[in-house]
Amino acid sequence: LPVIGALLGVAGGVYYAKEQGMLDGILGPSASSKPDYDAVRKAIADLLEAEDYDDGSYGPLLVRL
Q: I need a labelling partner for 43 at 20 to 30 A (CA). Which of 10, 14, 21, 54 fits?
């Protein structure tokens, strides 16, 4: 019985910490926040269009094709 009480206490603490945003650095942002896909597309396009970008792979070249 004490083990069940301890588990419930830990679960309650984790739930409270997650709701308060204390675990965002560990678990990532909450599910309610949506990623900004337009910003990701723009960042990839800017990187592919940069003439001085070369990491030694053929990835950017193949994506351009």
A: 21
> Dihedral sign, CA of 27, 33, 34, 37?
negative
- Give the separation between CA 10 and CA 8, rounded to whole angstroms: 5
Alpha-helix residue ranges (DSSP H) falling in the chain:
2-19, 24-27, 37-49, 59-64
Q: What is the pTM of this model?
A: 0.35
Nearest of 40, 43, 21 to residue 31 by alpha carbon:
21
The Cα 24–Cα 10 span in angstroms is: 18
Q: How many residues does the chain have?
A: 65
Per residue in 18-39, pLDDT (tens digit) is 777 776 666 655 555 677 888 8
The rounded distance, in Å, linking the Cα atoms of 63 and 40 is 15
